[in-house]
UniProtKB/TrEMBL annotation, chain A:
Protein name: Diguanylate cyclase
Organism encoding this protein: Alteromonas ponticola
Pfam families in alphabetical order: GGDEF, TackOD1
Parts of the chain that traverse the membrane: none
GGDEF domain segment(s): 353-470
Highest taxon of the lineage: Bacteria
Stretches of the chain forming a coiled coil according to its record: none
UniProtKB/TrEMBL annotation, chain B:
Transmembrane intervals: 30-46, 347-368
Cross-referenced Pfam families: Glycos_transf_2
InterPro entries named among the record's database cross-references: Glyco_trans_2-like, Nucleotide-diphossugar_trans
Family label: Belongs to the glycosyltransferase 2 family.
Gene3D superfamilies: Spore Coat Polysaccharide Biosynthesis Protein SpsA, Chain A (3.90.550.10)
Domain Glycosyltransferase 2-like: 70-237
Keywords: Glycosyltransferase, Membrane, Transferase, Transmembrane, Transmembrane helix
Entry protein name: Glycosyltransferase family 2 protein
Domain of life of the source: Bacteria
């Protein structure tokens, strides 16, 4: 792995690290490499821009590139540090270079596991890039609180993937969590402006009657002996507390008097009350709201799930299988093979039954994902409901890959199997028609094979794949 | 002992014997509770008829002025009663009031209920003391934040007749020297039990009739906490309520001491739920009765002493109270001992005749009281008068026993200071300071 340096200062040279311009770095997608970015107080803004350019690059070798931040004397702010995989001082770098490169090596190794890395050169989906970024680092994604963002928090490790400072990181993570690619853990609960979702709110106690903010808070005093209750200020006389009712000095709180509660007095309308109306004003949009209308939302830390890890390695298509897998209880390829074997033996022995293997291929399935976004999950759940209604408990379903399914339909003639598959086809096509615009064509191709003692699963699968390639 | 024997005994009684055997009835109870009270009520009814014009103009004045009235309801764990109370107030004929609820350290959902009602606008002000301070401090907190010209103090578990606020305010407009007005308290759960039937009759006799009579005589000494109205300036002068129990009677005396008149408004009706079980009734009376000793005989005994603000009516108020309640309470012990000594063989006859006499007295009292409250009388089923034959046992034996015990305990042990009714921190100070 080659490590390059990026700096805005011509004089800055690190031993054994070749400096490069950002454009040259981004152009070379063939080699696995890492970059060391040089921090100076003056290039703070530029550094963020560089990180953005690297992370927003579509090629996995570039956007997954391990990045280190090195500084000389002044330590960079935490929000910047956390956008990098490492943050080291220049002096440390020389001595600790071996340990630091461990993480860099990890990323390189992970990239090697990715199949077809050089064939599919573009990862355009941001959620997918998040998955890969997290998978290659194998790190928990934690938010940090920040005043620089309207939301009040940011996930610095993935910040560079996004063009703007809005809530799209949160939405992407939400989506990934819903799809079960990310597990999450409660981090913090926060209040957000109902108008602009801003996190910077001023909580104001206001008068219940006139709504004024100018309130005076006073303690009530209860004198046990005579039962008199009044504001503390009415008891104050020459630095002592004297009961205005019985003129006796109050000596010890809890012994001869106590303070049962607190009252507010409005300086505008003089009303006295105990429960002021709590209002909220947003610092960014200046809108006012009642406390009950404020959005309360939880902020989470995220961790990659096993499904997510798989999806990061094998691409977006794998996502759909996992959705169907959880909903349909698919059998693995190996299990399916065993079922076919048993069925073949059974039919061969009794010579009474007819069973079929059906193959289903969804064409162009990943386009649905791009098109429907969050709604994909819903659509796929509905598709699996169709699967459930068409197939019986005694049928065995397995997925060959993301869009090819094989089903063992026991005690079913070819004719009946075709009938069932046609029903499935129409139902799913109706679903697509209801959910997708006409332009998007998702083809469903099916084929039925009768099982006999000579049937060969591999042959059937080959046939299914032939359908696939038609 | 036989029926003939009884008749023979009655026929042979001479006037001297009648007095000798039944002096408590003829000389005290009949005189005080039947004859004098009836005369006073008669005077009241006569006067009321004559002053009809004045009442109309007082009412006119009240509604012209429309002063703000603060209805204050202090209490602990009373949240469940508040919604019904707030709703009942919407039907009042007099509507210019603010409803102030003070939650005195409730440990149930009272605060939650009240804050909800406050949001809905069903109550006007709500104050919560996190630490319980007792009824007096609760009432004083409410007073502290009230803005009305008149303060009406009611209990959370009671409800008012539709014209109660109007009726209780009228005396202030009839006579400028009135500082406080007591409202009539009647039993809401009349048909709940045997005990509540008896209390219904008792309330009509002692509160409706008894307080009208006392008011006529100018010696009314108590304004019940369940329903009373005060002039705000008068309450400010006495700095509100002092530590209870019995703070109702206490504040009435303090107002009297300042020279204001205290009257009873018999048609300002408040319905309250009375204890439906004798055990609870006993506890309630035990607390009430002890407070009489504590306040009349300890705290306010100075009203008997000639001083600058000495007033004969106040003097008689106290004397009447002490004599009839405390002193005469012990007369029955004297009477029993006396009878055992003088006529032990006639005890049975004397007991039967006494019962008969008190029964007749009860009927007379009830009829007069019923006539008095006729315009504002309300009954659930009209069956209550049939419980009259039991009244001599109820008042003569049951209540008397409770009262005697309470007086003795208070005289000997000052037990009222240990009452859990007040928080311990307050009782401790009160006992130490001999309040």
């Amino acid at each position: 792995m080659k490590i390059y340096g990026l700096t805005s200062e011509a004089s800055f040279i690190l031993p054994s690290i070749e400096t490069l311009s950002i454009d040259d770095l981004l152009d070379d997608t063939a080699t696995v490499k890492g970059a060391v970015l040089h921090y100076t107080h003056s290039n703070k803004g530029k550094l963020h821009h560089w990180v953005q350019r690297i992370r927003q690059h579509p090629h996995p070798r570039i956007y997954l590139m391990p990045l280190a931040l090195i500084y000389e004397t002044e330590k960079p702010p935490a929000s910047l540090q956390k956008q990098f995989d490492e943050c080291v001082s220049a002096s440390q770098l020389v001595s600790a270079s071996t340990t630091k490169s461990a993480l860099f090596e990890r990323v390189a190794q992970w990239l090697e596991r990715v199949p077809n890395l050089d064939k599919d050169t573009a990862d355009s989906s941001i959620p997918f890039k998040i998955l890969r970024l997290m998978a290659s680092r194998n790190k928990r994604l934690e938010p940090i609180l920040t005043p620089h963002n309207n939301n009040g928090f940011v996930y610095p490790a993935i910040e560079g993937l996004f063009e703007r400072n809005d809530d799209s990181p949160k939405n992407s993570l939400d989506f990934l969590h819903k799809q079960q690619f990310l597990g999450r853990e409660f981090f913090k609960r926060a209040h957000f402006c109902p108008t602009c979702d801003g996190a910077f709110l001023n909580f104001i106690e206001t008068c219940t009657d006139c709504g004024a903010e100018n309130l005076k808070k006073e303690e009530l005093v209860h004198h046990f002996k005579c039962g008199h209750v009044d504001n503390l200020s009415n008891f104050e006389r020459n630095n002592q507390l004297v009961c205005p009712k019985c003129d006796e000095r109050l000596k010890h709180i809890g012994v001869d008097y106590d303070k049962p509660s607190v009252v507010y007095q409005c300086r505008q309308c003089t009303l006295q009350f105990q429960d002021p109306v709590l209002k909220v004003q947003c610092y960014s949009c200046e809108s006012e709201a009642n406390i009950d209308d404020v959005n309360v939302a939880d902020i989470y830390a995220y961790e990659l799930s096993a499904i997510g890890l798989n999806a990061a390695l094998y691409g977006l298509d794998a996502l759909f299988t996992s959705i169907l897998q959880t909903d349909l209880q698919l059998y693995s390829h190996r299990e399916f093979k065993s079922f076919i074997h048993i069925e073949k033996a059974r039919i061969g022995r009794y010579k009474k039954s007819t069973s079929c293997v059906a193959t289903i291929y969804f064409e162009n399935l990943d386009s649905i994902f791009h098109r429907l976004g969050k709604r994909t999950e819903q659509l796929f759940k509905e598709i699996s409901a169709v699967f459930k209604s068409v197939f019986r408990e005694s049928d065995v379903i397995s997925a060959l890959n993301e869009s090819v399914f094989i089903i063992l339909m026991t005690e079913t003639s070819e004719e009946n199997a075709n009938l069932a598959l046609n029903r499935l086809k129409t139902a799913i096509q109706d679903l697509f028609a209801a959910n997708l615009a006409a332009k998007l064509s998702v083809g469903i191709l099916t084929r039925v094979h009768r099982i006999d003692s000579e049937s060969d699963l591999n042959l059937m699968l080959e046939n299914a794949l032939k359908v696939n390639h038609k | 002992m036989s029926l003939e024997g009884l008749f023979a005994f009655v026929q042979n009684l001479t006037l001297a014997q009648v007095l000798a055997y039944f002096w408590p009835f003829f000389l005290l109870d009949m005189l005080r509770y039947v004859i004098i009270e009836s005369l006073l009520i008669g005077k009241f009814l006569f006067k009321r008829k004559r002053r009809r014009q004045q009442r109309a103009s007082a009412r006119h004045q009240l509604f012209m002025e429309r002063p703000l009235v603060s209805i204050i309801v202090p209490g602990k764990n009373e949240g469940k009663h508040i919604p019904a109370l707030a709703n009942s107030l919407t039907h009042q004929t007099y509507q210019n009031f603010e409803l102030i609820i003070v939650d005195d350290g409730s440990d149930d959902n009272t605060a939650l209920i009240c804050r909800q009602l406050l949001k809905q606008g069903k109550i006007d002000r709500f104050f919560r003391n996190e630490v319980r301070g007792g009824k007096a401090s609760g009432a004083n907190t409410a007073l502290r934040f009230s803005q009305g010209k008149f303060i009406v103090h009611i209990d959370a578990d009671s409800h008012l007749a539709a014209d109660a606020i109007e009726q209780i305010l009228l005396p202030f407009y009839l006579d400028a020297s009135v500082g406080a007005v007591g409202g009539d308290v009647r039993v809401a759960n009349e048909d709940a039990s045997f005990a509540t039937r008896l209390q219904t009759i008792e309330y009509i006799k002692t509160i409706s009739a008894g307080r009208v009579a006392a008011s006529e005589l100018g010696i009314l000494r108590i304004i019940s906490g369940a329903h009373g109205a005060f002039r705000r300036d008068v309450l400010d002068q006495v700095y509100g309520w002092d530590v209870g129990p019995g703070l109702d009677g206490d504040i009435t005396l303090k107002i009297r001491k300042l020279g204001y008149r205290v009257v009873h408004a018999v048609h300002a009706v408040c319905y309250t739920n009375v204890p439906s079980r004798f055990t609870n009734l006993r506890r309630q009376r035990y607390r009430w009765d002890r407070s009489l000793v504590r306040f009349r005989l300890r705290k306010h005994l100075n009203m008997l002493a000639p001083s600058a603000n000495f007033r004969s009516s106040s003097f008689f108020s106290i004397i009447e109270n002490i004599v009839f309640n405390v002193f005469f309470d012990f007369k029955w012990i004297v009477y029993v001992v006396y009878m055992l000594y003088t006529a032990p063989s006639y005890l049975g006859y004397v007991f039967i005749i006494n019962y008969f006499l008190y029964f007749i007295a009860n009927i007379v009292q009830f009829v007069i009281a019923r006539t008095l409250i006729a315009p504002s009388y309300r009954t659930i089923d009209g069956l209550t008068p049939f419980f009259l034959p039991l009244m001599p046992f109820y008042t003569g034996l049951y209540l008397r026993a409770v009262r005697t015990y309470a007086y003795l305990m208070e005289f000997l042990h000052k037990t009222s200071y240990d009452d859990p009714w007040n928080p311990w921190k307050v009782s401790r100070i009160a006992k130490k300071e001999k309040l």
